[in-house]
Structure formats: C-alpha cells, structure tokens
C-alpha cells in the first residue's frame, strides 16, 4: 500500500500508477474501440440503415437496464470494500491485542522474570508474521475448494503455523498461572486478548477462502459483456462515429468498477491496494519491543 | 463450493457451469422469446398498428418502473448475500471456537490425562458434523412451518443431535471442574467457547427455517412476471423484431437476480453455491487433531 | 407463518394466499382503474385535448420523481425488513439462551436435585410463552403513546409478567448460589444467559411500541397518493385507454411495497407474515424438556 | 410521541397533524408557486419564447441530476433515521439495564435490608429522569461548539447530574461489596449493568451534540435550492401553467425529505417525532417499583 | 467544529463559511465555465453544427452513466460519513470509559489515598490529549506507507506516547491489586475500561492511516473529470449558451460530493468539519476532575 493524498486531483486524474485499473484494461479498451468501429461501419456505411431503422431503438434496452447494471456494480464494489475494511479491522485488532497483551504482561510479570519477557517479545510479533505468510499461501486460499490440488504438495497436510504460535502463547500464560506467577484474576483479565488471536486468524481465513458466490460474480461479468457488446448496435444510428469513444468509455466505467471490486475483495494478496501486512507486523514488533523492552 | 479465480473473465462469460443461473433459465428464456415473437407478429404484421399508436407509449410505464424493479432486485440479492455471509461467519466462528477450545484444553489438561484429550479430539469435530447433518434435514427447515408434515416421520419428535453433543462437552468440562482438574478461573475462561456452540447452531437454524417474508418474495415474482409480460406490447412498435432478443435479455437479467438471491439466501443446502460445510468440518477435525494430538 | 419454497414461481405468481398484498388492495385497485378511466374520458373524449397539449408533458414530473418514490419505498421496505429480522434474531437468542441455560443447569445441579430441575423445566419455556402473550397485548403496543387509553382497563397498571418470570429464575439461581449448590464461578458462567432474558424482552418491546416516525410514514403515503392521482393526466394523452391498466399497475407496485413494509415492521402481531412465536415457544419447551428430562 | 396505526391511510393522507412536514412548509410552498408563475409568465407571455427555444432543454439537467438529489435525500433521511433508532435503542437498553439491576439487587440483598432497597428504588428511575433533563438542555447540545456561549450562564460549569447519580449507585454497590453484603462474584455479575449507565449517557450525548458535518448538510440545502429555482425555466416551455403545481410538488417532496431528516436526527428534543423519554422514564419507575417493592 | 442549527436554511444556502465546499471550488468552477463557453462557441458559432448533428446525441451517454456516477458518489460520501461517525464513536467511548474508570476508582480507592486519586486525575485526561496529538502527527498518518519519509525525522523511531500513558495507568492499577488495595474481583471489573484505551487508539489509527483504496478513489476522480469534460459537446447543440451554467452546476454537484467525502473521511485533522478532539479532551478533564476531585 502506498499512502496518497486524497485531495490531489491532478495525480488521480492524469497519473496512471501500478495500482490503477486503467492499466490492465488498455488492451480490452482497444479491442472494444475496434469492435464499435466495425459495428458503426457496418450499419452506417455498409448497410446504410436509415435513421428511422428499428435498430436505433435498441438503446431503450440500455436505458432500462442501465440502472440495474450501475446499481449492481456499485453494490458489488461496496461489498468488496466491506470485506477489505473488515480485513483491515482484524489487522487493527491484532495491533491492539498485541499491545494490550504486552502492556499487561509487562505489569504482571515479576521485574526479574527476563525469560518470559523475552519470550513474549519474540512470540507476539511472530504471530503477525506467521499470519501474514499463512494468508498469502495458495493452500490457505484453496482450503475450501472441492477440487483436489495435486500441484500444491502441502495441500491439507501442512502444519497450521499461526495455530502453533498461538498455542505456545496460551501454553506459556497458563503455565505462569499454574506456577502462580500470575493469579486467577489476572488469567481472566488476559483471556480476551489471548483468545482473540485465533479469532482474528479465522476471520481473515474466511475472507480469503470464500469469494462472493460464483453465480453472482459470473452473472455480473456476463451482464457487462452483453450490455457493452450490444451497445453500438443502437448507438451507431444516433451518434455515428461518436459511438466509438462512447462505448469504450462506458465499458471503461463498468469494467473498472468490477476490477476494483475484484482487487479489493481479497485484501490479503500482494496487489498495490492490498493491506500492508508486512508494515503492520513491523509496527507490532516495534510497539511490543518498546513496551516489553 | 468450488474456488474460482474471480479475475478470469472468459470462464465467467463463456462457460456455463452447474452453478450458473443461465442453465435452469434456458427453457423459460425460449418461452419468453416465442411469446415476444407472437406479440410482435400480432401488432406489426397482423394488426398492422401504426408507429404512432398509443400502444407504443406503454414503454413509459417500463421506464417509470424500471428503476423500482432493478432496485428491488439488487436489494433482494444483497439481503440474500447478507444471510449467506452471516452463515459463513457462523461456520467461521465454529472453526475459531473449536480451535480455541482445543488449544485451551490442551494446556489445561494434565499431561497424562489421555482420556479427556481423546474425548475432546472426537467430540469437538463431531459437533460440526452433527450440525451439518442437522441443517440439511427437511425437519430443520420446516421447524417453524404452521402446517403438519405427515410425510416426515421424525418431524418434531427426533432428538436434537447437536444439542446432545454440546451437552456432552459441557458435561465433561464441568465434571473436570468438579473434580478440580481445572480451576474456577479456567472454567470461566472456557465458558465463552463452550456456550458459543449452541449459539452458532441457533443462528444457523434461524437462517435455515426463516426465509424472507412470503408477501415480499411473492410480490417480487409477480412484479417481474407482469413487467416482462407487458414489455413486448410497447417495444414491438419501436423495435420490431429486435423486441425478441431485448425482452429475453431483460428477463434474463431480472430473473437471474432473483434466482441468485433464492440460491444463496439458504447457504446450508447442497447447491454449488452453498457453504462447504463438509470441508469446514474436515478442517476442524484436522486442526483439533493436530492441537490435541 | 408458513414455510414456502422460494423457488416455486407459479405459486408465487398465480396463487393469492391470505398473506399476499394483492388481496387487501383489490377494492382500491378497482377504484384507481375507474378514476383513470374518468380522466382519460375527460381529456380524450370530452375536452378533446390535442396530442401537443401541455398536459402531456406532466409526465416529466413523474419521471423526475419516479426515482425518488421508488427509492424511498425500497428503503422503507428494507427498514421494515430489518426490524422483522431483528425481531427474529431476538427470538432466536431466546432459543439459544434457553438451551444453554438448560444444558448448564443440567450439568451444575446435583443428580438428585429433581426439584430444581422440574422448576427450570417449567419456568424456562414459560418465559417464551409469557413474552409472546405480552407482545401481543394492546397495552404493550401503546406503552409509549402520549394519549390516555380508557378503553384498555389494564393500561399502565398490570403486572409485567415476563419480568416476574425472569425474576423467579434469577431468584432461584441466586438461592442455589447462596446455598452453595452452585459455586461463584458457576454463577458468573450462568450470568450471561440469565440477564439476556430481560434484554430480549426489552428489545422486542422497543420494536413493538416504536413504529417509524409518524412524519416519515405519513409523507410516504401522501407522496404515493399525489403521484398516482396525477399520473393519468399526463399519460392519457400519450397512451389513451392504456392509461387505465398502466396507472393501476403502477399503483399496485407502489402500494404493495408500502403494505409489505407495514405488515413486516411489527413482527409480533398475528398476520401471516409475523413471527411464529407460538411455534418457537413450543420448540423451546421441547428442547428444554429433552435436556433437563 | 403518539402511537399511530400505520395501516390507516386516510389519516396519513388527509389529516395534517402537528407532526407533519406539510405545515411548516406551507408559506414556502406558496412562495414557490408564485415564483413559478412569474417565470412562466415571463417566458410564455412576455418573452414569447418559441417551443424550440434552447431554454426548453434545461430540463435535461434536471433529469441528469434528479437521480443524484433523490438518492442524496433518501440516504440523508436514512442516516437520520439510524440516529433516531440508535437513540431509541439506548433508551431501550436503559430500560433493560434498570430492570436487570433491580431484579438482581432484589435477589442479592438480604430480605431485611429495606434501606438499600428503598435507595435503589429511588435512584434507578432517577437516572432516567436526570438523563432526560440533561439531554434537553442547551448546554448539552452545544457542548462541543467552538464558540463561546455567554447567553448560557451554566455553560461548561455546571455539575454533570447523570454522572452524579451513576456515581452514587456505583458507590452504594461497592460499599455493599466492601461490607460483604454481596460477594465478589455478585459484584462481577452486577458490573455490566452498572457500567452501562454512563455508556448510554455518553452515546446519547454524542447523538445530541454532533449533527452531521456542516458541509454535507449545507450542500444538500444549496442543491435543493438551485435545483428547484431553475426548474421552471425549462418546464415553462413544455408544460405552460402546469409548471406551477409541478414545481411546487417537486419542492414539497425534496424539502419534506430534508425536513424529516432534520427533525429525527436529534431524537432527544421536544418535537412530536422525538423519543417519549418522559414516558420511558415513567415505565422504568413502574417496573423498578414493582420489582423492588 | 462549530455547532449549527440544521433548521436554518438561509444560512446554509446563502452564507459560505470556511467549512463550505463552495469556496475551494470557485477557481475550478470558473475554469469549467470558460471551457464550456469555448466548446459552445466552437460547435455553434464556428463549426455551425446543425441541430441534427450526431454530436447532439452524445448526451445519451451522460444519461446512461448519470446514474452510475451519482450512485458512486453518494455511496462514497456515505462511506466517508461512516468513517467520520466511527471516529466520533471511538471518542465518545473514550469519554465514557474515562468517566466510568474515574467513578469506579473513586469508589474503590480508600478515602485517604490522595496520591492515587491525584495520579488518575491527571493521567486519564492526559490520555485523550496524547491521543489527539498522536492522531494529528504526520508520522501517524504515514505509518503504513511503503515509501521512506526522510522529511519526517521521527518517522518510525519515536516513542508511542498514548501507549506510554496507557501503560502507566495499567501499571498503577495492577500495583494497587498487588498491594491488595483493590481486590481481584475489582481488578476484573476495571479490566474492560482499561483495555479499551489502546483499542480506541488502534481504531483511530486505523481510520487515520488507511484511506479508501487508491484505485477506487482515483477512478472516481477520473470518472468525474471525463464525464464533465465531455458534457458540453452534447449539450451545446440542444441548449446553446445555457450549457455554460448547466455544466458548471453539474460539476459543482459532483465535485462537492467528492470534496465532502475527502474532508470527512479523515475525522482527525484540523478542518472545520473534523472532530472537536480538543474540546472533548477538555470535557474529559472536567468530568474526571469533578468525579475524583
């Protein structure tokens, strides 16, 4: 992720950085332009359809459905944004819980217990790192897929690393309790933070391995495709060669909305818009180190 | 469920897998096409209505209501998606709580207590399996129906299996407490996870046995039906035989949205878009086995 | 409530069960049809307005506002649905908490304590029954009304039955604690379930006694009324006698959305779409009986 | 607040009670009608613009923006409704927590401790009364204003009454704990209810002293103003004198939505649509009295 | 922030205070007006395009997309508002938790322990002040940026002040527990408030350092730019010189929505619409001082 100044309009309008949807669309936009040119040429120059041809009124369909497709795509983008923001919230909670746990342990542990301090100073930030690696693995993404994945040798067999790390923390805390280093009341006070680690992991896995239902996603793409493919038929007779930029621009808008949705609905990848998990893990390391240092 | 690459447009547009809404719609689409053809033939070739006939302006109605129907369907689909996603969240919590419970028990139980470990290693994953079977039974779906169901011999009589499994876990945990294997503080720390099982079960049952209100659902279908059935009357005079693909496509869009909503609003069935409960239960088994192993 | 198969389109489109919005609307629809006929007759046959009359363009207003009214009604319906679904969630929690409480008590109570078991076996399901009766009384609905209600003799005086039942449960549990039948840790573990009963009751009362603000609700009805009443003036000149079915259908759509909203915004009545509270209470009785049996 | 039957359409359409938005709008509606008349007279009778004048097409702008303004206002109203409903929820929680606290105390306190019972019987309902008075004071509303308020002598100086009441309750409970009248487990069980009082107060203060951002609110009003003021210029040439009722009605719809939003976004005032806090406080008094009586 | 009377329409429409979006837009509005004038002059006076030119129908595109852009912007503004309101909620919780903590400590601490009282009287309000300063620093905003920031000398190195303050509070509370000034039950009762401080800090940091995804934000700006830039081409032929105010007004509406969103999506800055954190911190100081005084 890179932080941008949302008030800088010139940059947003004229620069096309790696994170922009325009880039991957360029080849398709050229194709759409050529396709529109073909349709216009066919209707206007070859078939010489009159202005009163029935074909002109095909645009009525695009008006009737223009609303449905816009709405569908805006909702789609918002659902994707909600997933992205939910992912960000979980990583925010990871920061908070790591900090809180560190602060509490710093206070609970006897001043001279350097061993436990060093242990937690290493293990708490380790969780974030392990979670990040876990979420970026293909086997996590395909966890719920019904097909076999022979291409992934570790599919379904490998150890669940974040679980292991969480387990070691819980183990340590409960040992401290058993050895009466921390009291029962303190154990209860620590419970919220400790249980939260696996909760966060599970929630992130859910976002990762469950895209929106296939039938929904496929329908939107089919809808965009047919909508744009039929657009020049109606427009050619009212706009002539203006049809070419118009169709291209309409496709750009519709496809961009879908592309943005696709990109942000999985916030745990390595795209430019994905969450800066490495950076957050680093911050956790800094915070915990400072607290338990 | 099968995991798909949401960035693969060609597959989404041109392949029509089992999970696609296009398949079940094909017969109806053919019927709509024939029906539109009939109307166009009637108006244009048989009655020979002029272009200025009042009938042409019926399209005004479709414009005025086009907005309402699109919006209604997009909201409908989103409500259904929310239910689907809520169901997914509950099964995600089931994973988290199963993991957390296993991790805590692994730490709390004395090293030599193999009996209890084996017990929980079997019973925790069993809950997910029992819940899955419970949610797929007809008697669960019809639990709140006001009509009698003589065709279901076990309707209203059978034992509630997930409850039984939860009960045995709670029973075991509290026995450990009574026998002072785990302390009162530890009991409190375990309480959240243990109570959550029946909460998850209840929430899933709610989604399963309460579809959206009948009057709402029936109204949407009536609306689509009348909207599409009257469409060719107005379009025939402005578009001629183009009315046939246009009406068919508009019906395809409206009906697809409704079909997708119907499919995903009950996420606990056996459709292709339904939640992979078997897979999740398997994962729980794997996780718990690894932790308590 | 009756469970319906949401995939059965024929039933939804052609049958008009008691729960359908079409039934209560029929007289008004006939009136609207007659009214439209009157306007068309007046403009077309009596005044013989030309096609270019200014009146024709009144339809511009309906286009400009068509969007606002559709959106308003769809939002209205969704707000009502949210209330309905919130009500359903609270009754779902009631099921969960009743189950959890029964399971925990079954485990906590000494095997030989048949008295307490019998007590809870009767009182837990009683709460659901009492709550149902409480929510269906007029005095609950009018609890926050600023007007006096001499027609309700018990208004503001009668005992709050669900409170009484909850109180007896809490009383019993705390007595068990005082008599050391259950420990302090167990008391804490039971607290969540026990407190939840009055929370659920309060939340249901809130939904029951607070409809959406009057000015909002009245505005929507006024808007529908004026919108539909002015519709034939503009349409008559472009559609002739087609105005009659068109106006009637547009009114059907708008009024249905409002009617559905009215019906489901109070989910605790006795309409066909209301929550099956009797059935849920029965299920609680079955579950609790099975657990504590 | 007065309870109304949402199914009574005649009342909603034809009666204009104090709570209706129509009343305060009447003078402005008359002004808009006169203004529209002026524009129509100017264009049609004075300037005698032809039907093909460019001015006629100004309506294109109103079509393009009609969507934006409707959507903005519907969202605005919904945001306001959410605040109103959130306020209602907090007062609902106040009822629940007051009840739960009373029930628990009734059980926890020794039978003979009449003093404490009397104390809570008075103080719990007092909180609701104090909160109501606190929320209706101008100094609460202006708490976060950056300007000085010399006209309010108590601004920023006065004692926070609800805080004082909450403090006295917490003080009493903890004294009971210190004097071992209630145990530590019971203290924990009471903590949720007791802490919730200040939480509810804070949440209500937030709704009260933070209207939606000024730039948002001012923009909506400017938008409505310019939209309606330019409307007759375009309509006059297509509708003639029909422009007058049409413009007036469009203004009525847009302004009503904004007015409703303004009225309900602060649910703690004394408007007819505001929350019946006095009534709720009275109910709390009744409930608590019945429980602790 | 300044409190405004949302019912004062004249102020909202005619005054243009610092917080209004109109101010920063004025230069761009002038530019758009000149640009539109240029296009109209070109098409109407220079090229003398006929009314039937294909160019006129470019407006079809603006109609088809007018819906998408309005919807996108309204959703954008609402997402921003949600962030603003979430920020407000967190600062509201800070007020509540500060109050609750102070009230509880006032009760728990022995009457004679002036030292601890003075400590908390200073440190609790200090947290709000430290959090405010922390959120307004550039290094907090850029925390997750992937680029280096040599211009910020303290970037990534400086001590996390709110953490330090929270740590000192937790340290103090647990010391009181260790010294048996407060009991274990009281420690548990204080835990919620104490842990919440870092949670609130983390949530505010999240809002601050994570703007909406760049690709989304950039797309909206590109869309507005192209939409408005192409608008005069189509309008010039139907509206003549009316195109100039119309294009300018449409741009004003679209850009205002985006500007408002930009301004409120980060509620922790120093804009007029940002949260009055200084004021809130002051109120916390007042409340805590009154309680612990």
TrEMBL record, chains A, B, C, D, E:
Q: What is its main location?
A: membrane
Q: Which GO terms describe its cellular component?
A: plasma membrane
Q: Subcellular localization, per the record?
A: Cell membrane
Segments passing through the bilayer: 21-38, 58-75, 224-254
Alphabetical list of Pfam families matching this protein: Bestrophin_2 (PF25539)
Q: Name one GO molecular function term.
A: chloride channel activity
| Keywords, comma-separated and alphabetical | Cell membrane, Ion transport, Membrane, Transmembrane, Transmembrane helix, Transport
Topology class, membrane: Multi-pass membrane protein
InterPro entries per UniProt: YneE/VCCN1/2-like (IPR044669)
Q: What family is this?
A: Belongs to the anion channel-forming bestrophin (TC 1.A.46) family.
State what protein this is by name: Bestrophin
Q: Which organism is it from?
A: Aquiflexum gelatinilyticum
């Amino acid at each position: 992720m890179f932080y941008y100044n949302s008030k800088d309009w010139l940059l947003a309008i004229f620069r096309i950085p790696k994170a922009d949807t325009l880039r991957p669309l360029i080849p398709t936009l050229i194709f759409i332009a050529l396709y529109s040119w073909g349709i216009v040429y066919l209707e206007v120059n070859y078939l010489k359809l009159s202005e009163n041809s029935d074909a002109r009124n095909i645009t009525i369909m695009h008006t009737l459905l223009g609303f449905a497709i816009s709405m569908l795509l805006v909702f789609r983008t918002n659902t994707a944004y909600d997933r992205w923001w939910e992912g960000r919230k979980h990583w925010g909670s990871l920061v908070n819980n790591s900090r809180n746990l560190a602060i509490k342990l710093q206070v609970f542990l006897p001043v001279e217990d350097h061993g436990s301090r060093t242990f937690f100073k290493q293990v708490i930030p380790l969780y974030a790192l392990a979670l990040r690696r876990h979420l970026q693995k293909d086997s996590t993404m395909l966890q719920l897929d019904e097909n076999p994945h022979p291409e992934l040798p570790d599919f379904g067999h490998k150890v669940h690393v974040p679980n292991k790390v969480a387990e070691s923390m819980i183990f340590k805390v409960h040992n401290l309790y058993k050895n009466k280093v921390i009291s029962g009341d303190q154990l209860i006070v620590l419970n919220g933070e400790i249980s939260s680690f696996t909760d966060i992991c599970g929630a992130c896995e859910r976002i990762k391995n469950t895209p929106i239902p296939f039938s929904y996603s496929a329908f939107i793409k089919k809808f965009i495709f047919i909508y744009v493919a039929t657009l020049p038929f109606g427009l050619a007779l009212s706009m002539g060669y203006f049809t070419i930029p118009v169709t291209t621009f309409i496709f750009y808008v519709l496809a961009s909305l879908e592309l943005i949705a696709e990109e942000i609905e999985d916030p745990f990848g390595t795209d430019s818009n994905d969450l800066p998990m490495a950076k957050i893990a680093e911050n956790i390391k800094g915070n915990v180190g400072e607290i338990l240092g």
